[in-house]
Design goal:
CATH topology of the largest domain: Tachylectin-2, Chain A
Helix content: under 10%
Largest sheet: 7 strands, antiparallel
CATH architecture of the largest domain: 5 Propeller
Radius of gyration: 28 Å
Distance between the termini: 38 Å
CATH superfamily of the largest domain: Glycosyl hydrolase domain, family 43
Shape: globular
Bound molecules: calcium ion
Length: about 625
Protein backbone atom coordinates (compact mmCIF):
# COMPACT_ATOMS: atom_id res chain seq x y z
CA UNK A 1 0.00 0.00 0.00
CA UNK A 2 2.91 2.28 0.70
CA UNK A 3 3.97 2.07 -2.88
CA UNK A 4 0.56 3.06 -4.18
CA UNK A 5 0.59 6.13 -2.01
CA UNK A 6 4.07 6.98 -3.21
CA UNK A 7 3.02 6.37 -6.78
CA UNK A 8 0.14 8.81 -6.47
CA UNK A 9 2.55 11.41 -5.18
CA UNK A 10 4.93 10.71 -8.03
CA UNK A 11 2.06 11.11 -10.50
CA UNK A 12 1.23 14.50 -9.11
CA UNK A 13 4.81 15.69 -9.14
CA UNK A 14 5.58 14.44 -12.59
CA UNK A 15 2.35 15.40 -14.25
CA UNK A 16 2.44 18.89 -12.79
CA UNK A 17 5.90 19.28 -14.26
CA UNK A 18 4.77 18.01 -17.62
CA UNK A 19 1.49 19.87 -18.03
CA UNK A 20 2.83 22.53 -20.35
CA UNK A 21 4.67 19.84 -22.25
CA UNK A 22 1.61 17.67 -22.67
CA UNK A 23 -0.23 20.57 -24.24
CA UNK A 24 2.49 20.88 -26.85
CA UNK A 25 2.02 17.36 -28.10
CA UNK A 26 -1.78 17.41 -27.89
CA UNK A 27 -2.11 14.10 -26.08
CA UNK A 28 -5.67 12.92 -25.86
CA UNK A 29 -5.28 10.44 -23.01
CA UNK A 30 -3.46 11.09 -19.77
CA UNK A 31 -0.11 9.32 -19.88
CA UNK A 32 0.87 6.85 -17.17
CA UNK A 33 3.72 7.65 -14.89
CA UNK A 34 6.45 5.04 -15.03
CA UNK A 35 8.07 5.20 -11.62
CA UNK A 36 10.88 2.85 -12.48
CA UNK A 37 14.02 4.64 -11.42
CA UNK A 38 15.39 2.18 -8.88
CA UNK A 39 12.80 2.81 -6.16
CA UNK A 40 11.45 -0.11 -4.12
CA UNK A 41 8.57 -1.39 -6.25
CA UNK A 42 5.70 -3.24 -4.56
CA UNK A 43 2.91 -5.29 -6.10
CA UNK A 44 -0.77 -4.53 -5.54
CA UNK A 45 -0.63 -6.52 -2.27
CA UNK A 46 2.19 -4.34 -0.96
CA UNK A 47 4.94 -6.93 -1.36
CA UNK A 48 8.19 -6.05 -3.11
CA UNK A 49 8.10 -7.36 -6.69
CA UNK A 50 10.46 -10.30 -7.15
CA UNK A 51 10.86 -10.83 -10.91
CA UNK A 52 14.48 -10.31 -11.91
CA UNK A 53 16.28 -10.89 -15.20
CA UNK A 54 12.90 -11.25 -16.80
CA UNK A 55 10.67 -10.31 -19.70
CA UNK A 56 7.19 -9.04 -20.49
CA UNK A 57 4.66 -10.74 -22.77
CA UNK A 58 1.47 -8.99 -23.85
CA UNK A 59 -1.59 -11.23 -24.23
CA UNK A 60 -4.69 -9.34 -25.31
CA UNK A 61 -4.67 -6.18 -23.23
CA UNK A 62 -2.81 -7.75 -20.32
CA UNK A 63 0.91 -7.56 -19.65
CA UNK A 64 2.60 -10.59 -18.06
CA UNK A 65 5.89 -9.97 -16.30
CA UNK A 66 8.04 -13.05 -15.69
CA UNK A 67 11.24 -12.99 -13.68
CA UNK A 68 13.50 -14.83 -11.28
CA UNK A 69 12.25 -15.39 -7.75
CA UNK A 70 15.53 -14.32 -6.18
CA UNK A 71 16.59 -15.45 -2.75
CA UNK A 72 19.09 -14.04 -0.30
CA UNK A 73 21.67 -16.68 -1.10
CA UNK A 74 21.56 -15.83 -4.83
CA UNK A 75 19.96 -19.03 -6.12
CA UNK A 76 16.69 -18.23 -7.85
CA UNK A 77 14.16 -20.86 -6.76
CA UNK A 78 11.64 -20.28 -9.53
CA UNK A 79 9.99 -17.88 -11.95
CA UNK A 80 7.30 -15.51 -10.73
CA UNK A 81 4.52 -14.14 -12.94
CA UNK A 82 2.80 -10.80 -12.34
CA UNK A 83 0.00 -9.26 -14.43
CA UNK A 84 -0.84 -5.66 -15.17
CA UNK A 85 -3.23 -3.68 -17.36
CA UNK A 86 -0.88 -0.68 -17.54
CA UNK A 87 2.75 -1.69 -16.81
CA UNK A 88 2.56 0.31 -13.57
CA UNK A 89 0.33 -1.66 -11.19
CA UNK A 90 1.33 -5.36 -10.95
CA UNK A 91 -0.52 -8.22 -9.27
CA UNK A 92 1.22 -11.47 -8.39
CA UNK A 93 -0.37 -14.45 -10.22
CA UNK A 94 1.74 -17.55 -9.87
CA UNK A 95 5.18 -19.08 -9.50
CA UNK A 96 4.95 -20.61 -12.95
CA UNK A 97 8.01 -22.85 -12.59
CA UNK A 98 9.93 -23.76 -9.45
CA UNK A 99 11.89 -26.38 -7.59
CA UNK A 100 8.46 -27.96 -7.02
CA UNK A 101 7.94 -28.54 -10.77
CA UNK A 102 8.33 -32.26 -11.49
CA UNK A 103 11.87 -32.95 -12.68
CA UNK A 104 13.31 -29.63 -11.44
CA UNK A 105 13.79 -30.14 -7.69
CA UNK A 106 17.57 -29.60 -7.84
CA UNK A 107 17.41 -26.45 -9.98
CA UNK A 108 17.97 -22.72 -9.94
CA UNK A 109 16.56 -20.55 -12.72
CA UNK A 110 17.87 -17.42 -14.40
CA UNK A 111 16.70 -15.06 -17.16
CA UNK A 112 13.35 -16.70 -18.02
CA UNK A 113 11.84 -15.70 -21.38
CA UNK A 114 8.43 -16.69 -22.76
CA UNK A 115 6.88 -16.75 -26.23
CA UNK A 116 3.46 -17.82 -27.48
CA UNK A 117 3.47 -20.43 -30.23
CA UNK A 118 0.36 -19.94 -32.35
CA UNK A 119 0.88 -23.33 -34.05
CA UNK A 120 0.80 -25.41 -30.87
CA UNK A 121 -1.19 -22.79 -28.89
CA UNK A 122 1.30 -23.18 -26.07
CA UNK A 123 3.24 -20.65 -24.04
CA UNK A 124 6.86 -21.75 -24.20
CA UNK A 125 9.51 -20.78 -21.64
CA UNK A 126 13.26 -20.95 -22.07
CA UNK A 127 15.55 -20.12 -19.17
CA UNK A 128 19.03 -20.76 -17.87
CA UNK A 129 19.20 -23.66 -15.42
CA UNK A 130 21.89 -24.60 -12.94
CA UNK A 131 21.98 -27.19 -10.16
CA UNK A 132 22.07 -26.05 -6.53
CA UNK A 133 25.65 -27.13 -5.83
CA UNK A 134 27.81 -25.35 -8.40
CA UNK A 135 27.42 -23.31 -11.56
CA UNK A 136 28.69 -25.96 -13.95
CA UNK A 137 25.56 -27.42 -15.62
CA UNK A 138 25.11 -24.33 -17.88
CA UNK A 139 21.88 -25.73 -19.32
CA UNK A 140 18.80 -24.36 -21.00
CA UNK A 141 15.49 -25.42 -19.49
CA UNK A 142 12.43 -25.61 -21.74
CA UNK A 143 8.89 -25.72 -20.35
CA UNK A 144 5.42 -25.04 -21.69
CA UNK A 145 1.88 -24.31 -20.61
CA UNK A 146 -1.62 -23.81 -22.07
CA UNK A 147 -2.04 -20.47 -20.33
CA UNK A 148 0.43 -17.63 -19.80
CA UNK A 149 0.27 -17.79 -15.99
CA UNK A 150 -0.36 -21.50 -15.31
CA UNK A 151 2.06 -24.13 -14.01
CA UNK A 152 4.61 -24.76 -16.74
CA UNK A 153 5.55 -28.40 -17.41
CA UNK A 154 9.16 -29.36 -17.99
CA UNK A 155 9.91 -30.34 -21.58
CA UNK A 156 13.64 -30.80 -21.17
CA UNK A 157 16.83 -29.39 -19.78
CA UNK A 158 19.90 -29.67 -21.93
CA UNK A 159 22.89 -28.06 -23.54
CA UNK A 160 22.03 -27.16 -27.16
CA UNK A 161 23.36 -29.68 -29.68
CA UNK A 162 24.39 -32.12 -26.95
CA UNK A 163 23.36 -35.00 -29.23
CA UNK A 164 25.58 -33.78 -32.08
CA UNK A 165 28.88 -35.53 -32.46
CA UNK A 166 32.00 -33.51 -31.64
CA UNK A 167 30.08 -30.67 -29.99
CA UNK A 168 31.88 -30.40 -26.66
CA UNK A 169 32.10 -27.27 -24.51
CA UNK A 170 34.41 -27.40 -21.47
CA UNK A 171 34.36 -31.15 -21.26
CA UNK A 172 30.63 -31.82 -21.66
CA UNK A 173 28.51 -32.49 -24.75
CA UNK A 174 26.62 -29.54 -26.26
CA UNK A 175 27.15 -25.81 -25.97
CA UNK A 176 27.19 -24.29 -22.50
CA UNK A 177 24.11 -22.10 -22.15
CA UNK A 178 23.92 -19.36 -19.51
CA UNK A 179 22.50 -15.80 -19.87
CA UNK A 180 19.77 -16.06 -22.48
CA UNK A 181 16.84 -14.54 -24.29
CA UNK A 182 14.14 -15.48 -26.81
CA UNK A 183 13.21 -13.58 -29.94
CA UNK A 184 10.25 -14.06 -32.27
CA UNK A 185 10.69 -12.73 -35.78
CA UNK A 186 7.93 -11.28 -37.98
CA UNK A 187 7.40 -14.63 -39.74
CA UNK A 188 6.91 -16.48 -36.44
CA UNK A 189 10.38 -18.03 -36.46
CA UNK A 190 11.81 -18.09 -32.95
CA UNK A 191 15.40 -17.85 -31.80
CA UNK A 192 17.09 -18.74 -28.54
CA UNK A 193 20.22 -16.70 -27.79
CA UNK A 194 22.63 -17.61 -25.00
CA UNK A 195 26.20 -17.27 -23.76
CA UNK A 196 28.39 -20.32 -24.28
CA UNK A 197 32.04 -21.28 -23.85
CA UNK A 198 32.21 -19.85 -20.30
CA UNK A 199 30.43 -16.71 -21.54
CA UNK A 200 33.02 -16.10 -24.25
CA UNK A 201 30.78 -16.76 -27.28
CA UNK A 202 27.22 -15.57 -27.83
CA UNK A 203 25.25 -18.25 -29.70
CA UNK A 204 22.07 -17.85 -31.74
CA UNK A 205 19.87 -20.95 -32.10
CA UNK A 206 16.99 -21.19 -34.54
CA UNK A 207 14.13 -23.07 -32.87
CA UNK A 208 11.94 -25.84 -34.26
CA UNK A 209 8.41 -24.80 -35.30
CA UNK A 210 7.05 -25.89 -31.88
CA UNK A 211 9.78 -23.76 -30.16
CA UNK A 212 10.85 -26.77 -28.09
CA UNK A 213 14.23 -27.57 -29.65
CA UNK A 214 17.21 -25.97 -31.33
CA UNK A 215 17.66 -26.78 -35.03
CA UNK A 216 20.43 -24.46 -36.22
CA UNK A 217 23.27 -22.75 -34.41
CA UNK A 218 25.37 -19.65 -35.17
CA UNK A 219 28.31 -18.31 -33.21
CA UNK A 220 27.39 -14.64 -33.54
CA UNK A 221 29.77 -12.84 -31.18
CA UNK A 222 32.76 -15.16 -30.87
CA UNK A 223 35.17 -14.20 -28.10
CA UNK A 224 32.98 -11.19 -27.36
CA UNK A 225 32.54 -12.08 -23.68
CA UNK A 226 28.97 -10.76 -23.70
CA UNK A 227 26.11 -11.54 -21.32
CA UNK A 228 22.50 -10.59 -20.71
CA UNK A 229 21.39 -10.59 -24.37
CA UNK A 230 18.21 -8.85 -25.54
CA UNK A 231 17.23 -8.64 -29.19
CA UNK A 232 14.73 -6.43 -31.00
CA UNK A 233 13.83 -5.56 -34.53
CA UNK A 234 13.11 -2.10 -35.83
CA UNK A 235 12.78 -0.79 -39.39
CA UNK A 236 13.80 -4.23 -40.68
CA UNK A 237 17.10 -4.24 -38.75
CA UNK A 238 18.11 -6.29 -35.72
CA UNK A 239 19.45 -4.67 -32.57
CA UNK A 240 21.34 -6.73 -30.04
CA UNK A 241 21.77 -5.41 -26.52
CA UNK A 242 24.29 -7.04 -24.22
CA UNK A 243 26.37 -6.39 -21.14
CA UNK A 244 30.01 -7.16 -20.57
CA UNK A 245 30.83 -10.11 -18.36
CA UNK A 246 31.52 -8.77 -14.84
CA UNK A 247 29.42 -10.95 -12.56
CA UNK A 248 26.84 -9.09 -10.46
CA UNK A 249 28.72 -5.80 -10.96
CA UNK A 250 27.25 -3.44 -13.54
CA UNK A 251 29.15 -2.37 -16.64
CA UNK A 252 28.76 -0.36 -19.83
CA UNK A 253 25.98 -2.15 -21.77
CA UNK A 254 25.98 -1.82 -25.52
CA UNK A 255 23.84 -2.11 -28.63
CA UNK A 256 24.88 -3.53 -32.00
CA UNK A 257 23.04 -3.44 -35.29
CA UNK A 258 22.75 -6.05 -38.08
CA UNK A 259 20.90 -6.51 -41.36
CA UNK A 260 20.44 -10.23 -40.73
CA UNK A 261 19.54 -11.85 -37.42
CA UNK A 262 22.69 -13.94 -37.40
CA UNK A 263 24.85 -10.91 -38.11
CA UNK A 264 27.40 -9.69 -38.72
CA UNK A 265 26.63 -7.24 -35.91
CA UNK A 266 28.22 -3.80 -36.15
CA UNK A 267 30.44 -2.04 -33.62
CA UNK A 268 29.28 -1.73 -30.02
CA UNK A 269 27.53 1.54 -29.29
CA UNK A 270 26.99 2.61 -25.69
CA UNK A 271 23.41 2.45 -24.45
CA UNK A 272 23.97 5.62 -22.51
CA UNK A 273 26.03 8.57 -23.60
CA UNK A 274 28.77 8.56 -21.00
CA UNK A 275 31.51 6.07 -21.77
CA UNK A 276 32.78 4.42 -18.64
CA UNK A 277 29.44 4.67 -16.92
CA UNK A 278 27.74 1.49 -15.82
CA UNK A 279 24.31 1.79 -17.48
CA UNK A 280 22.87 3.52 -14.41
CA UNK A 281 24.39 0.72 -12.37
CA UNK A 282 22.28 -1.96 -14.02
CA UNK A 283 22.33 -4.84 -16.50
CA UNK A 284 19.98 -5.15 -19.47
CA UNK A 285 17.32 -7.83 -19.29
CA UNK A 286 14.74 -7.22 -22.02
CA UNK A 287 13.31 -4.62 -24.38
CA UNK A 288 9.55 -4.47 -24.85
CA UNK A 289 8.24 -2.60 -27.92
CA UNK A 290 4.98 -0.80 -27.10
CA UNK A 291 3.19 0.22 -30.26
CA UNK A 292 0.28 2.62 -30.13
CA UNK A 293 -1.70 4.65 -32.62
CA UNK A 294 1.05 7.21 -33.19
CA UNK A 295 4.32 5.46 -32.55
CA UNK A 296 6.37 2.87 -30.74
CA UNK A 297 8.15 3.19 -27.44
CA UNK A 298 10.86 0.67 -26.62
CA UNK A 299 10.83 -0.13 -22.92
CA UNK A 300 14.38 -0.81 -21.78
CA UNK A 301 14.26 -3.18 -18.80
CA UNK A 302 17.36 -3.57 -16.72
CA UNK A 303 18.31 -5.08 -13.35
CA UNK A 304 20.23 -3.33 -10.64
CA UNK A 305 21.55 -6.30 -8.72
CA UNK A 306 21.97 -5.94 -4.96
CA UNK A 307 24.48 -8.68 -4.50
CA UNK A 308 24.19 -8.98 -0.71
CA UNK A 309 20.39 -8.98 -0.82
CA UNK A 310 19.29 -10.13 -4.27
CA UNK A 311 15.51 -10.03 -3.65
CA UNK A 312 16.00 -6.29 -3.02
CA UNK A 313 17.51 -5.86 -6.51
CA UNK A 314 15.77 -3.03 -8.37
CA UNK A 315 14.27 -2.52 -11.79
CA UNK A 316 15.50 0.25 -14.06
CA UNK A 317 12.90 0.80 -16.77
CA UNK A 318 13.55 3.67 -19.16
CA UNK A 319 12.26 4.60 -22.61
CA UNK A 320 14.60 3.81 -25.49
CA UNK A 321 14.19 6.19 -28.39
CA UNK A 322 14.51 5.19 -32.02
CA UNK A 323 15.16 8.32 -34.06
CA UNK A 324 16.75 9.12 -37.42
CA UNK A 325 17.31 5.43 -38.13
CA UNK A 326 19.12 4.63 -34.91
CA UNK A 327 18.61 4.19 -31.18
CA UNK A 328 19.58 7.21 -29.14
CA UNK A 329 21.53 7.02 -25.86
CA UNK A 330 19.25 6.43 -22.90
CA UNK A 331 18.88 9.39 -20.57
CA UNK A 332 18.00 9.06 -16.90
CA UNK A 333 14.63 10.12 -15.48
CA UNK A 334 13.44 9.28 -11.95
CA UNK A 335 10.06 8.82 -13.59
CA UNK A 336 8.59 9.43 -17.04
CA UNK A 337 5.24 9.30 -18.79
CA UNK A 338 3.98 6.63 -21.12
CA UNK A 339 0.78 6.76 -23.16
CA UNK A 340 -0.06 3.17 -24.11
CA UNK A 341 -2.85 4.18 -26.46
CA UNK A 342 -0.75 6.46 -28.64
CA UNK A 343 2.61 4.72 -28.11
CA UNK A 344 4.22 8.02 -27.10
CA UNK A 345 6.46 8.67 -24.13
CA UNK A 346 8.27 11.48 -22.44
CA UNK A 347 11.95 11.11 -22.93
CA UNK A 348 14.11 12.66 -20.25
CA UNK A 349 16.92 14.88 -21.50
CA UNK A 350 20.35 15.26 -19.95
CA UNK A 351 20.22 17.83 -17.20
CA UNK A 352 22.79 20.58 -17.15
CA UNK A 353 23.30 23.48 -14.77
CA UNK A 354 21.09 26.43 -15.60
CA UNK A 355 22.94 29.60 -16.53
CA UNK A 356 21.05 32.88 -16.59
CA UNK A 357 20.74 33.21 -20.35
CA UNK A 358 20.19 29.82 -21.94
CA UNK A 359 20.21 31.20 -25.50
CA UNK A 360 23.76 32.54 -25.37
CA UNK A 361 25.90 30.99 -28.11
CA UNK A 362 23.25 28.43 -29.17
CA UNK A 363 22.70 27.53 -32.84
CA UNK A 364 20.32 29.90 -34.64
CA UNK A 365 18.37 29.44 -37.87
CA UNK A 366 16.16 31.80 -39.82
CA UNK A 367 13.82 31.40 -42.77
CA UNK A 368 15.61 33.68 -45.24
CA UNK A 369 19.18 33.55 -46.34
CA UNK A 370 19.86 37.03 -45.12
CA UNK A 371 23.48 36.89 -44.10
CA UNK A 372 23.83 40.61 -44.37
CA UNK A 373 27.25 41.88 -43.71
CA UNK A 374 27.54 42.20 -39.95
CA UNK A 375 23.88 41.28 -39.32
CA UNK A 376 24.13 37.51 -39.36
CA UNK A 377 21.58 35.43 -37.41
CA UNK A 378 24.01 34.33 -34.69
CA UNK A 379 24.53 37.96 -33.67
CA UNK A 380 21.22 37.62 -31.84
CA UNK A 381 22.80 35.30 -29.25
CA UNK A 382 26.37 36.63 -29.04
CA UNK A 383 25.85 38.42 -25.72
CA UNK A 384 26.65 41.79 -27.31
CA UNK A 385 23.89 44.39 -27.47
CA UNK A 386 25.73 46.36 -30.13
CA UNK A 387 25.44 43.56 -32.66
CA UNK A 388 22.24 42.16 -34.10
CA UNK A 389 20.34 40.19 -36.72
CA UNK A 390 18.33 42.04 -39.33
CA UNK A 391 15.11 40.59 -40.76
CA UNK A 392 15.93 41.08 -44.38
CA UNK A 393 14.02 43.40 -46.67
CA UNK A 394 11.17 44.14 -44.34
CA UNK A 395 8.95 41.32 -45.59
CA UNK A 396 6.71 39.79 -42.95
CA UNK A 397 6.41 37.26 -41.53
CA UNK A 398 9.99 36.22 -40.97
CA UNK A 399 11.25 33.93 -38.28
CA UNK A 400 14.41 33.10 -36.40
CA UNK A 401 14.73 30.18 -34.03
CA UNK A 402 17.14 29.05 -31.34
CA UNK A 403 17.97 25.44 -30.55
CA UNK A 404 18.82 25.12 -26.86
CA UNK A 405 20.17 21.61 -27.38
CA UNK A 406 17.70 20.10 -24.91
CA UNK A 407 14.47 21.00 -23.18
CA UNK A 408 14.56 23.52 -20.35
CA UNK A 409 12.00 25.05 -18.08
CA UNK A 410 11.94 28.57 -19.54
CA UNK A 411 10.78 31.50 -17.46
CA UNK A 412 11.24 34.57 -19.64
CA UNK A 413 12.14 35.88 -23.07
CA UNK A 414 13.94 39.20 -23.28
CA UNK A 415 14.33 40.84 -26.69
CA UNK A 416 16.49 43.91 -27.24
CA UNK A 417 15.66 45.74 -30.48
CA UNK A 418 17.73 48.22 -32.40
CA UNK A 419 16.42 51.70 -31.76
CA UNK A 420 14.04 52.84 -29.05
CA UNK A 421 11.40 54.59 -31.16
CA UNK A 422 9.64 51.61 -32.69
CA UNK A 423 6.98 49.07 -31.78
CA UNK A 424 7.61 45.58 -33.01
CA UNK A 425 4.92 43.03 -33.78
CA UNK A 426 5.82 39.41 -33.26
CA UNK A 427 4.93 36.13 -31.75
CA UNK A 428 6.98 33.44 -30.02
CA UNK A 429 6.35 29.73 -30.44
CA UNK A 430 8.01 26.89 -28.59
CA UNK A 431 8.66 23.25 -29.37
CA UNK A 432 10.38 20.24 -27.88
CA UNK A 433 10.95 18.47 -31.20
CA UNK A 434 11.12 21.14 -33.92
CA UNK A 435 7.93 19.65 -35.38
CA UNK A 436 5.05 20.39 -33.04
CA UNK A 437 4.87 24.05 -32.04
CA UNK A 438 2.85 25.78 -29.35
CA UNK A 439 2.19 29.49 -29.09
CA UNK A 440 3.87 31.08 -26.08
CA UNK A 441 3.66 34.84 -26.71
CA UNK A 442 1.36 36.84 -28.99
CA UNK A 443 2.29 40.44 -29.68
CA UNK A 444 0.96 40.53 -33.22
CA UNK A 445 -1.10 43.65 -32.49
CA UNK A 446 1.58 45.41 -30.45
CA UNK A 447 1.64 49.22 -30.66
CA UNK A 448 3.80 49.87 -27.62
CA UNK A 449 7.12 51.50 -28.44
CA UNK A 450 9.98 49.91 -26.54
CA UNK A 451 13.63 49.06 -26.99
CA UNK A 452 13.18 45.84 -25.01
CA UNK A 453 10.31 43.40 -24.78
CA UNK A 454 10.13 41.08 -21.79
CA UNK A 455 7.71 38.20 -22.12
CA UNK A 456 6.75 35.43 -19.73
CA UNK A 457 7.26 31.99 -21.32
CA UNK A 458 6.56 29.54 -18.50
CA UNK A 459 7.05 26.41 -20.54
CA UNK A 460 9.38 23.53 -21.19
CA UNK A 461 10.98 23.73 -24.62
CA UNK A 462 14.10 23.04 -26.61
CA UNK A 463 13.31 25.19 -29.68
CA UNK A 464 12.11 28.78 -29.40
CA UNK A 465 11.02 30.66 -32.52
CA UNK A 466 10.50 34.40 -32.90
CA UNK A 467 8.32 35.39 -35.85
CA UNK A 468 8.22 39.04 -36.83
CA UNK A 469 4.69 39.48 -38.14
CA UNK A 470 4.47 43.10 -39.14
CA UNK A 471 5.17 46.73 -38.51
CA UNK A 472 4.01 48.64 -35.52
CA UNK A 473 4.08 52.34 -34.91
CA UNK A 474 7.27 54.08 -35.94
CA UNK A 475 8.60 51.01 -37.64
CA UNK A 476 9.60 52.20 -41.05
CA UNK A 477 12.50 49.86 -41.65
CA UNK A 478 12.96 46.11 -41.30
CA UNK A 479 13.31 44.78 -37.81
CA UNK A 480 16.71 44.38 -36.24
CA UNK A 481 17.02 42.38 -33.05
CA UNK A 482 20.24 42.95 -31.17
CA UNK A 483 19.94 40.28 -28.54
CA UNK A 484 17.45 37.62 -27.62
CA UNK A 485 17.82 36.16 -24.15
CA UNK A 486 15.97 33.14 -22.80
CA UNK A 487 16.02 33.06 -19.04
CA UNK A 488 15.61 30.17 -16.70
CA UNK A 489 15.45 32.54 -13.77
CA UNK A 490 17.81 30.49 -11.62
CA UNK A 491 21.19 31.78 -10.52
CA UNK A 492 23.31 29.41 -8.52
CA UNK A 493 24.96 31.56 -5.87
CA UNK A 494 27.19 28.66 -4.80
CA UNK A 495 28.87 28.45 -8.22
CA UNK A 496 32.67 28.21 -7.79
CA UNK A 497 32.39 29.00 -4.09
CA UNK A 498 34.74 27.26 -1.70
CA UNK A 499 33.77 23.95 -0.11
CA UNK A 500 35.16 21.91 2.74
CA UNK A 501 34.20 18.31 3.49
CA UNK A 502 34.70 15.56 6.03
CA UNK A 503 36.49 13.33 3.52
CA UNK A 504 37.03 12.69 -0.17
CA UNK A 505 38.05 9.92 -2.50
CA UNK A 506 41.18 10.66 -4.47
CA UNK A 507 40.35 13.13 -7.25
CA UNK A 508 36.76 13.48 -6.13
CA UNK A 509 37.27 16.51 -3.96
CA UNK A 510 34.65 18.65 -2.28
CA UNK A 511 35.22 21.53 -4.74
CA UNK A 512 33.61 19.39 -7.45
CA UNK A 513 30.17 20.11 -6.00
CA UNK A 514 30.31 23.79 -6.93
CA UNK A 515 32.22 23.65 -10.22
CA UNK A 516 29.05 23.86 -12.32
CA UNK A 517 29.81 20.55 -14.01
CA UNK A 518 27.37 17.65 -13.55
CA UNK A 519 30.06 15.26 -14.74
CA UNK A 520 32.38 15.87 -11.77
CA UNK A 521 31.54 14.92 -8.22
CA UNK A 522 32.54 14.67 -4.59
CA UNK A 523 32.55 11.15 -3.27
CA UNK A 524 32.45 10.23 0.39
CA UNK A 525 34.41 7.08 -0.40
CA UNK A 526 32.28 4.71 1.67
CA UNK A 527 28.71 4.07 2.79
CA UNK A 528 29.14 5.15 6.40
CA UNK A 529 26.83 7.91 7.67
CA UNK A 530 28.18 11.17 9.05
CA UNK A 531 30.01 12.59 6.05
CA UNK A 532 29.45 16.30 5.50
CA UNK A 533 30.21 19.08 3.00
CA UNK A 534 30.06 22.79 3.73
CA UNK A 535 29.82 25.69 1.29
CA UNK A 536 31.13 29.17 2.09
CA UNK A 537 29.15 31.65 0.00
CA UNK A 538 31.65 34.42 0.81
CA UNK A 539 29.05 36.70 2.36
CA UNK A 540 25.78 36.47 4.18
CA UNK A 541 22.70 36.16 1.94
CA UNK A 542 18.95 35.52 2.04
CA UNK A 543 18.65 31.95 0.88
CA UNK A 544 15.50 30.46 -0.61
CA UNK A 545 16.36 27.05 -1.98
CA UNK A 546 19.00 24.56 -2.94
CA UNK A 547 19.23 21.74 -5.42
CA UNK A 548 21.33 18.63 -4.94
CA UNK A 549 22.40 16.63 -7.99
CA UNK A 550 23.28 13.10 -6.88
CA UNK A 551 25.91 11.45 -8.98
CA UNK A 552 24.27 8.01 -8.85
CA UNK A 553 20.67 8.13 -10.05
CA UNK A 554 18.03 5.75 -8.78
CA UNK A 555 19.00 5.57 -5.11
CA UNK A 556 17.48 7.27 -2.09
CA UNK A 557 19.58 9.46 0.18
CA UNK A 558 19.11 10.62 3.78
CA UNK A 559 20.61 13.89 4.95
CA UNK A 560 20.20 17.15 6.83
CA UNK A 561 21.06 20.70 5.76
CA UNK A 562 21.89 23.52 8.14
CA UNK A 563 22.68 27.21 7.64
CA UNK A 564 25.00 29.43 9.65
CA UNK A 565 26.31 32.99 9.73
CA UNK A 566 29.46 32.16 11.67
CA UNK A 567 30.00 28.36 11.56
CA UNK A 568 29.37 28.37 15.32
CA UNK A 569 25.60 28.21 15.58
CA UNK A 570 23.70 26.25 12.96
CA UNK A 571 20.02 26.45 12.01
CA UNK A 572 18.39 23.32 10.55
CA UNK A 573 16.73 24.10 7.21
CA UNK A 574 16.15 20.68 5.59
CA UNK A 575 15.57 17.31 7.27
CA UNK A 576 15.58 14.32 4.92
CA UNK A 577 16.89 11.89 7.52
CA UNK A 578 13.98 9.46 7.05
CA UNK A 579 13.68 9.82 3.29
CA UNK A 580 13.19 6.68 1.12
CA UNK A 581 12.03 8.43 -2.05
CA UNK A 582 14.26 8.27 -5.10
CA UNK A 583 14.79 11.75 -6.53
CA UNK A 584 17.98 12.45 -8.44
CA UNK A 585 17.84 16.24 -8.32
CA UNK A 586 15.79 17.24 -5.27
CA UNK A 587 14.98 20.94 -4.88
CA UNK A 588 14.54 22.06 -1.27
CA UNK A 589 12.86 25.37 -0.58
CA UNK A 590 13.43 27.16 2.72
CA UNK A 591 13.95 30.59 4.20
CA UNK A 592 17.25 31.23 5.90
CA UNK A 593 19.93 33.83 6.16
CA UNK A 594 23.52 32.76 6.28
CA UNK A 595 26.96 32.61 4.76
CA UNK A 596 27.54 28.87 5.26
CA UNK A 597 25.46 25.84 4.32
CA UNK A 598 26.30 22.38 5.60
CA UNK A 599 24.94 19.08 4.30
CA UNK A 600 25.36 16.02 6.54
CA UNK A 601 24.66 12.56 5.16
CA UNK A 602 22.80 10.37 7.63
CA UNK A 603 22.07 7.32 5.46
CA UNK A 604 21.57 5.97 1.94
CA UNK A 605 19.97 3.20 -0.07
CA UNK A 606 21.24 -0.37 0.12
CA UNK A 607 24.64 -0.64 -1.58
CA UNK A 608 25.13 3.04 -2.41
CA UNK A 609 28.12 5.28 -1.65
CA UNK A 610 26.71 8.79 -1.75
CA UNK A 611 28.40 11.12 -4.23
CA UNK A 612 27.27 14.64 -5.03
CA UNK A 613 27.75 15.98 -8.56
CA UNK A 614 26.55 19.48 -7.80
CA UNK A 615 25.04 21.42 -4.93
CA UNK A 616 23.39 24.61 -6.11
CA UNK A 617 22.10 27.33 -3.83
CA UNK A 618 19.53 29.95 -4.81
CA UNK A 619 18.31 33.22 -3.42
CA UNK A 620 14.68 33.44 -2.41
CA UNK A 621 12.28 32.93 -5.31
CA UNK A 622 15.05 31.94 -7.71
CA UNK A 623 15.03 28.13 -7.53
CA UNK A 624 14.70 26.12 -10.74
CA UNK A 625 11.74 23.88 -11.46
CA UNK A 626 12.07 20.37 -10.06
CA UNK A 627 11.47 18.61 -13.37
CA UNK A 628 13.73 20.50 -15.72
CA UNK A 629 14.56 17.59 -17.91
CA UNK A 630 11.23 16.37 -19.26
CA UNK A 631 10.52 16.74 -22.93
CA UNK A 632 7.58 15.08 -24.63
CA UNK A 633 7.93 13.31 -27.89
CA UNK A 634 6.96 10.08 -29.51
CA UNK A 635 9.08 7.81 -31.59
CA UNK A 636 7.79 6.04 -34.63
CA UNK A 637 9.02 3.11 -36.59
CA1 LIG B 1 24.03 40.71 -30.25
CA1 LIG C 1 30.43 19.01 -10.27
Amino acid sequence: MTFRRNLTRFCRICLAGALGVAAIASIEAAPLTMNTGGAIWNDTEGRQINAHGGCILKVGKTFYWYGENQTRHGKSSGVNCYVSPDLVNWTFKNRVISQGTPGLSESQFERPKILYNSGTRKYVMWAHRENLRDYADAQAVVAQCDTPDGNYALVKMFRPFDKTANTVDHGKPGFMSRDCTLFQDDDGTAWFISSSNENQDLMFYKLSPDYLDTVEHYKVLPRGSREAPALLKCDGKYYLLTSASTGWNANYNTLQEAEKITGPYGPQQGLISRIGDSTFNSQVSFVLPITGRKGTVYLFMSDRWKVWNLPNSRYIWLPLRFEKGTFQPIVWGDCWQLDLESGLATFPVDPTPSPDNLARGRPVHCDKNNERNGKEPDRIVDGDKKTGWAADGGDAPQWIKIDLGQSYALNDSKITWEGDQRAYRYRIDVSVDDVHWSPAVDRTTNEQISETNNDRLNCNARYVRLTITGKGAGMWFWATCEEWELLSGSTNVAFKKSVTASSAQWGRYAAKITDGDFGTYWSTGDDKPGHWAQIDLGRSADLGACRIVWQNPGYFYQYKIEASEDRMSWTPVVDMSTNTKVVRMPVHRFKARGRYLKLTLTGADDGCWPSIAEWEVFSQGKAPAEQQYSGFRGSSQ
